[in-house]
Design goal:
Helix content: 25-40%
Strand content: 25-35%
Shape: globular
Number of helices: 4
Order of helices and strands: HEEEHEHEEEH
Radius of gyration: 15 Å
Length: 172
């Protein structure tokens, strides 16, 4: 499994280059152990807000992953994001979270791809942006459009996904 280690090392380097503080083998509160967890907090001129951005990468290494796994990874990642965030502002008061759960799978099924490429659900001052990396095709799947709500920030999430995990798959 040296290939898995090399792949995760490459992701870790990309995440660090993007400005994230990266930790390995992090136990998420009430959730799984993730291979990589990255965090950063920054001021965005787009909305004049402080954003707390968090990325959780879990390599499913041969086991199948489902949309339910992606949702569970998001929920646990958000709990971890609240735990590591140190900004003394209320969510929604010029402050919000971006949580990117990334599932690395041997082969993504149609349901998982559809989940990743669908418009993310709305949350109060919280962006959920699931990413699926399919090793069998070498493609990265995520929402590659812009929703009206939070439109200014979708480019930030796509930029992170592209830099850290690779370009999105072409829409079919």
């Amino acid at each position: 499994m040296a290939g898995n280690s090399d792949y995760l090392s490459s992701m870790s380097t990309n995440m660090r280059d993007f400005g994230l503080r990266v930790s390995r083998q992090v136990q998420l509160p009430g959730g799984p152990v993730v291979d990589l967890f990255g965090s950063r907090t920054y001021f965005s001129w787009k909305g004049l807000v402080i954003l707390s951005q968090h990325v959780a990468v879990r390599d499913y290494a041969g086991t199948a992953a489902t949309p339910a796994d992606a949702k569970a990874l998001f929920d646990a990642s958000f709990r971890q994001a609240k735990k590591v965030n140190r900004v003394p502002l209320l969510r929604g008061m010029q402050f919000g979270y971006m949580v990117v759960p990334c599932l690395v799978v041997a082969s993504a099924d149609g349901a998982l791809i559809q989940y990743a490429e669908a418009r993310p659900p709305k949350h109060w001052s919280l962006f959920e942006f699931p990413v699926v990396v399919d090793r069998s095709t070498g493609r990265t799947h995520y929402y590659n459009q812009t929703a009206i709500w939070g439109a200014a920030f979708f480019s930030d999430m796509r930029k992170l996904a592209k830099h850290c995990f690779g370009a999105a798959a072409d829409p079919s």
